Amino acid sequence: LIPPIWFIVFPPAIRKRKDLLLYTEQDENQEPTVKLEANTSLYPTSKRTLLLLIFPGLLIVLATVSIILLYISTKFIQTFIINTNGTSI
Description:
Shape: rod-shaped
Strand order of the largest sheet: 1-2
Helix content: 25-40%
Largest sheet: 2 strands, antiparallel
Number of domains: 1
Oligomer: single chain
Structural class: mainly alpha
Radius of gyration: 27 Å
């Protein structure tokens, strides 16, 4: 399985053991309990990260659509086509 591209570009923060363990106040020798954080997201949620992912993707999509439209119909760039007699359309 290939990880999503944002995991490669922006890897999630590595959690330390100390962050996951919660010690009770009763005894130092007591077993620690695991602390779970419910609001931790593995996906990019900050505005800057989302913009860094969206804009390159948008440029790739626009370029792909333009190439497909040019392949289907050359009327897409009709304003730039020049007639053989030297006058532009």
